[in-house]
Amino acid sequence: MMPVDGMSDAIPASLWRRLLSRRVPTGALLQVAIGWLACDTLLLCRFIGLDAPWVVASWLILAAALLRLLALPPSRSDPTVATLLCCVGVAFILMLLGGQGRFFYANIDWQVRDAVLRDMWANPWPFIYASGNMLRAPLGMYLFPATIGKAYGQAGADLALLAQNSALLGLILAIGSSVFEDRRSRLVALATLLLFGGLDVVGQLIAGNLRAISPTAHLEGWGPTQFSSTITLAFWVPQHAIAGWLAAVGYMLWKTGRLRLGALLALPPLLASWSPLPCIGMIPFVAYAVWRDLAVRRIGAADMAAPVIAAAIALPSLAYMSAAGDRVGMRIYEMRPEFFLLFAAIELVPFIAMAVGGWRGRFGGPTLAITTSTLIVLPWLQIGSSTDLAMRGSIPALTILACHLSEALSGGWAASLRRKAALLLLLAISGVTGVTEVLRALTYPVSPPPRCDVASAWDVTFSAFPKDSYLAPYDRIPALIRPAAPASAAYTGSGPCFDRDWARPPFF
Questions:
Q1: Full DSSP string of 203-247
Q2: How many domains does the chain have?
Q3: Cβ pair 272, 318 in contact under 8 A
C-alpha cells in the first residue's frame, strides 16, 4: 500500500507542475485585454442609451474581426501559467493596498472616483443631473463594476472594481513578461518597475521640508510638476496607469519584433476610454513605429485594417469624451525655466544618465531619445486645470525607461559594476516614495463609501478646480449619441457625502 500511496501523492504534484509550466500564448492574453477594452465600448453605448440591435450586431462583427487580426504566433518567451498567476497576484496586492474593494485606505482622489461609480450603479442608464450636466469622463474603468453594482450594490461594485483592475493589470504584467527572455530578467524588470520613481526625498530636502515629513506623507508635490512613481500610479490613478502600461508594453512588443504595427496602432483608440492622457504620451513612440515600418516596407493590409476597425469600435466613446472638449483644452503650462531645470535634475537626469550607457540596448537609441524628449516636453503642456498631462501622459515613457534600466541589472546590455551600484542606489532612493504610499495604506483608516453625487464629492476637496473634465452640459453632447430621454439622477444634495472624515496625508 505504501508505494501506491506514494504514487498517488506524486501524480497530482506532477500534474500540478506540468500545468504551472505550460506556456500561455502572449497573443491570447493580448486578445483578452483588447477584448475587455472593446466590451467597455459596448457598455458605454448602453450607458448613453445607444443600444439598438444594429449597434450590438455591428460591435460583434467589428470586435471579432479585430481579435482575429491581433493573433500572434507562439514564442519561447511566452509566459507560463505560473508566471501569469504570479502577475495576477502582484496586481491584486497593488490594487488591494490602493484601497480598491474597500479593505485598505484609498487616497483622496477616490472621493470623486467612488462617487462616479456610485452614480453609475445607483441611477438608471442614461441619466442627467439636476444641474443639466451629464457625466462625461473616461468611464472605461467604471462600466463593468457599475453593472455589477446594479445587482449587488456598493459592495458588489467595489469588489468588481478590485477584480477587474487586478485581472487587467495581471494580464499586462504577464504580456510584458514576454519581452524578457528568462525568469531572472523578468524578476529584475518587475522589481525595477515597482521601485521606479523620482528622487522625491532629495527634492523635499532641497525644498526644506524633510524634517516635517512623516513616514506616510505624499512626497511627489515638491516641484513645479510631477512624474509619478509606479506605486503612486497604482494607488492613486489605476485607470491612467493601466492604459499607460498597456500602451508601453505594446510598443516594447513591437520594438522586439513580437507585435505587428497594426496591433500597436489599434491600442490608443481603445485605451482612450480608460484614459486619453497616456495615449497622448504615446504619440511620439507610435509615430516612430510607423516611420520605421514604412522605411522597411513592413506594413501590410492587416496593419492598416486593425487601427481602422479599432477606431470604429471606439467611435462612440471617442465622440462621447470629446463633448464640450473646448472647456478642457490644451495650452502651454506656465513654469519658470529654472524651476523646471531643478525638477529635471532630480527627477529625470540621474536616470537618463544611467540609461545612456545602454544606447545600443533594445530600448536605447531612438527609443531612448524619444523617451527623453517626451519627458522634457510634456511638463510644458497642460490639459485642464492641473498638471495631469505631465503626470499621466508620461506613464508610457517612464515605463519604457524603467524596463530599459532593468536590462542594465539583468545583463541585457553591458553595464559596469559601478554603474549598476549607482543605479541600485537611485532605485533605493526613488523607492522611498512607494514605501510611504504603502505605509499610508496600512496605517490609515479604511475610506468611507460615498453618499453623494460627483459634483458634491468634488467640492469636498477639489472645489477650487473646475469640473469640466467630469461633467458636460447635456446640450453639448453630440446629437448622434445624445440620449433622447435621460432619467434624472436621484441624489438631491442633502446630507454629507461621507459618514466620517476621510483621512488625508500630509502634502509638501
A1: HHHHTT-GGG--TT-B-TTSSSS----HHHHHHH-HHHHHHHHHH
A2: 1
A3: yes
Determine the residue type at 210.
L
CB atoms within 10 A of CB 452: 23
Residue at 21 is within a domain: no
Q: What is the pLDDT of residues 447-505, one digit of tens each?
A: 999 999 999 999 999 998 889 889 999 999 998 899 989 999 987 667 899 999 999 98
Q: In terms of Cα–Cα distance, which of 179, 352, 359 is closest to 255? A: 179
Q: Which three cell numbers stand for residue 140?
A: 472605461
Answer yes or no: is 491 within a domain.
no
* Other CB atoms within 10 A of residue 202 CB: 18
Average pLDDT, the chain: 93
Which residues are bridge partners to 80 per DSSP?
23
The residue type of 416 is S
Parallel, antiparallel or unpaired: strands 471-473 and 133-135? antiparallel
497 lies in some domain: no
> Can you tell me whether residue 109 is helix, strand or coil?
coil
**Model confidence over 199-225: pLDDT tens digits?**
999 999 999 888 778 899 999 989 999
All cell numbers assigned to 321: 469624451
Q: Is the pTM of this model over 0.85?
A: yes
Is-contact 154 449, C-beta < 8 A? yes
Written as nine digits, the cell of 312 is 470604429
Domain that holds residue 356: 26-466+474-483
Q: Would 282 be classed as within a structural domain?
A: yes
Contact (CB, 8 A) for 244 and 281: yes
Compute the half-sphere exposure of residue 156: CA atoms within 13 Å on the CB side of its CA.
13
Cis bond leading into 126, ω under 30°?
yes
Kind plus residue range of the DSSP H or E element containing 265: helix 261-271
